Amino acid sequence: MSTFHKVLLNTMLANVTTGFLFFAVVFWMYLSTGDVALTGIVSGIYMGLIAVCSIFFGTVVDHNFKKNVMVFSSTTTLIFYCLSAVVWVFWLDEDTLSIGNTALWVFVSCILVGSIVEHMRNITLSTVVTLLVPEAERDKANGLVGAVQGVGFLVTSVIAGSAIGFLGMEVTLWICLALSLVALLHLLPIRINEPEIITQEEAQLTLGDDTIPTPASDLSVVSKGIDIKGSMKIILSVPGLLALILFASFNNLIGGVYSALMDPYGLELFSPQLWGLLLGLTSLGFIIGGAVISKTGLGKNPVRTLLLVNVGVAFVGMLFAIREWWWLYILGIFIFMAITPAAEAAEQTILQRVVPFRQQGRVFGLAMAVEMAANPLSTVIVAILAEAYLIPWMAGPGAETFWGIILGDGTARGMALMFLASGAIMLVVVLLAFMSRSYRKLSQYYATTHQDLAGSAEK
Questions:
Q1: CA dist., res. 25 & res. 160, Å (int)
Q2: Each residue's pLDDT tens digit, 208-232
Q3: Do 182 and 248 have their domain in common?
Q4: How far apart are CA 31 and CA 225, in angstroms?
Q5: Hey, which of 233, 257, 288, 304 would disulfide with 422, CB 3.0 to 4.6 Å?
Q6: Model's pTM, two decimal places?
Q7: Number of folded domains in the chain?
């Protein structure tokens, strides 16, 4: 497992660096311009490009050795960060920043490209788990990945604002340049021995006609090009897998409620400084939850574990704002973050077993694109509905209704009603999923399918 641990550590360093710089740039832009639209546009572009590029990234991962993909990602990130530094030194003027400033957009674009390309490594890491970790230990390895992601979230959320406040954008940029170089230098000596890559044309296979790779077939075979149609055929070849991806997408759609309202609700209860600190502290739940999974695993049926976790998420969503009590809200967020790594690890573990190794990159990428695309859409819709209808209604006539009695008094009862409704919808959907044929078929397929490549890679 030593190679896996080195790759995991290197990915954490890369993720922290890019996340740190991106959030620092967003904070810096708002503090420098006071333009909410500018920061919203940049954040929206960032999320949208990750969703769109994930399909392409997955194909790149499948068609190349994993070490080469990681080196390419790190090198590209470093190059674009260097270009942003050139723009900063020779072109950008902090005294004239505005939404129409060309130098600002070039500077931000370089950082966006560098940060988005680094996201390729997250898809690569999911396939590296399949390659380097024995099948029986993958759920625990995925839990460790969740813990590392929690560390990254904690570090970036706590230090990004502090860096801009105390050090400024220029020093922050130089720090991230140095960290990007360290990540690349640390990665270069790591050696991963992978199976030879064979195209379907070379193997005389025809994906999309009669032959669909399965875990029992040659796991080194890859299909040509992006081939979304072929990726869908692989997904459809696994009983219940499409339903799993759609279920995760629906969860992200519901998750738009939290993306849109968690910060506004928190700022109703706390000062901005205290809310930022508490949000960083609650992210310890990611680390704790991931660490628990890395020790205990997910049980014999990760599909069942995934649904049980979502039952817990639904109850948290229904209850953590049922009253305007600060401790209840913080406790709910902590519980949510603590159980989320189990859901993420379960989905990763399922895909790593039922999807052929050489097709995993594109399937991970396609699934990520579909799942991530749902969140920004629902975030916008929820924000509009809450602001235009629910918040005014609960502040007025709604306070005297049944819902007013359930949710009690306070200034954010409209947002609380949205939390309650989204949690109830999620609970109903999860219970229906438990009774579905797709759940039974995917559970059975997972139990009877095996894919262990760890013996072919150097540890």
A1: 9
A2: 444 444 443 444 455 565 667 767 7
A3: no
A4: 43
A5: 257
A6: 0.76
A7: 2
